[in-house]
Amino acid sequence: MIDTKGRHNSTFIRNGASRCALAVMACSALLPITAHADDADAAGKKSDRDIVVTGSVPQDYVVDSQGSTTRLDLSLRETPQAVSVITRAQIEDFGLNTVDTLLRRATGVNVDSAETDRTYYNARGFDIVNFQFDGIGQPLSYGLQNGQIDTSIFERVDVVRGATGLLSQTGNPSAAINFVRKRPTKDLGGYASLSYGSYNEVRGDVDVNTPLTEDGAIRTRFVASYQDGDSYLDSYHTSRLTLYGVAAADLGPDTVATAGYSWQESDPRGVTWGALPFVYADGSAARYKRSASTGQPWTRWYSLDRNLFGDITHDFGGGWTGKVSVLRRARNQDSKLFYVYGAQDTTSGEGLYSWPGAYLDRLRETTIDANVTGKLAIAGREHDVVLGVNYGESRLVEQEASDADAIGVSLPGNAAFDGSFPYPDFGDYSVAADYTTKITSAYGLLRLSLADPLKVMLGANVTNARRTGTSYDTPYAFDKTRFLPFAGLTFDLAGNITAYASYATIFSPQVYLTADRSNIAPLEGETYEAGIKGEWNDGKLTAAIAVFKTSEDNVAESIGFDTDLGQTLYKGVNAKSHGVEVDLAGEVLPGFQVSGGYAWTDIEDDDGNNARAFIPRHTLRMSATYTPQFLPALRMGASARYQSKIHNDYIEQDGYAIVDLMARYQVTNNVSLAVNLDNLTNVKYWTSLQWDQAYYGAPRTVRGTLGVSF
User: Fold this and answer.
1) How far apart are the two ends of the chain, measured CA to CA in Å?
2) How far is CA 278 from CA 213, 282, 710, in A?
3) How far apart are CA 192 and CA 213, in angstroms?
4) Pair 264, 150: CB distance under 8 Å
5) Residue 44 has what pLDDT?
6) Least confident piece of the model among 86-100, 138-152, 531-545, 675-689
7) Residues 525, 172: contact at Cβ < 8 Å?
8) Mean pLDDT, rounded, of the chain
9) Mean pLDDT across 414-439
10) What residues pair up with 299 in beta bridges, in sequence order?
11) Going edge to edge, which strands form the sheet with 154-161?
12) Is the dihedral of CA 603, 605, 606, 609 positive or negative?
């Protein structure tokens, strides 16, 4: 969809999905649950043929290194940009089963959910549009995420804040999200879990790693998850099935090939397109029950997302490595939606009207990346080099169907919220949008070791972005080329403390329509960042503080919903932001893990006025778990997220904090029991103030989980 009021769906065989999920859980139950291959293992005597079981839940909240920023395998302290990592341990501890719940734990990231099944993300005052998978990917097709991405297939998620144009196809001053997929290892093992929670939410997960040869030279991994449940929102029901398989093979001592496929089918029902209007006709703030929703029993937002990927890595020797990666994504959506517009008169109950719509979307994306990394010896010192090329092509086709007689129908009293609007006669579909985007880029980076404590990075990305086609009778065409320089430096102040600074540029074509039906010009600008990073406990604990300043031209700002066109229109504004971020992750004390941080962002327009006030200026994210040394079978934790006051043209929302709790007990070496309690204090809050509508966040919920490792 092109506008900001969601749309989509198709027929999903729910019983079939349930049978598949039950089969997955049944298979996991039949797998052997054992910690040792034989009695020799139990005695501590291992042979070359022993089977090592690796199915335990991970514990760490920090990673040794990451390549999401530069393709170089650098520690967080060596990276001259702000990076937060949500590890598998944190995902498991707090049940972060979707990207939305996960990113709400990331420092400086805000999740704007104005509708049940479409989400905007922002950081440092600007929208996040770069989602990558194992380091490659294309900008979000609508500038937002349609549906939920299940996290069961990811080992961790890296959040690189600031401009990331060096490796992204386009630069953006907010952040890039890199989803690092689970990969097969040479060990046999796995983990399965079954959970049940509030509103009859049921979820099953299984993750199995299997070497196919004795030496593990050929190995596979299979992941499956299924989730189904009702909701605190009236009529809303979710159903999601995720399957993932990946295989890796050592083609020789220096070459590894990997190929995988993921398949996710979602069928949420009773979805909202838009949500609850913020104000009554007299301008006063509207009041609703937390469960209130404009979703109808017949509204659905079906999606099928398939990803085929592969890569081959070769070690040339002498510190040089080459890698070629390919990602093919196919996404289909079929939606039947219902939007409510207007403002209700508190006396007569009149003033709200209907706008149903039906949409079929077909997106096909192909992304190819090839790069080499290596080391150069110059002037007696060793330096790092990255050279690469990237090509992405996508085509989006959207078809629309409508029922003119069902548009503009008055919804008096409670008619907009009671689910009584009849299913429209949508009629035949016609093509509303059809456009192709091609992005080609070449990038390079030189990391110079000028002295033992001083490293300087000089890099650039040359990008050409082209689009042809139309969208809602408007030409969608551009052909832009930009040179995006990048510079960074790190200086070791002590053995474990490093100061850094970086500069990056911004360029990103946009798909938003203006009042005269033209495209908004591409985003352009620059960003500066400086900070200090440190690590302790042999790298098990990391901390960082960063300051940044960003300017950006042509930021898309909504000017309202056009009822003639059926789309939201925008204007381009110039904006700048600056702020401070603090990150902390890892083991503070034995058994005590933490992850999170604080962010302050100030956003202004060209005249120095407060801009994008729907984004909180202060946010705090912190998760912590503790495993007592005297009782290592027990793991307890809490997660808190706070945001300061926000407002839009309609209402103001005070700052609030959400607190979640968790506890897990390892009953045996292979069996664990866990409980999660979310929104402990039952805070009532709007999920977004970005538009003129939203819905309330979830109340207090609880779920229990049985986990089995094998």
Assistant:
1) 44
2) 61, 12, 51
3) 23
4) yes
5) 37
6) 138-152
7) no
8) 89
9) 96
10) none
11) 83-87, 154-161, 175-181, 130-133
12) negative
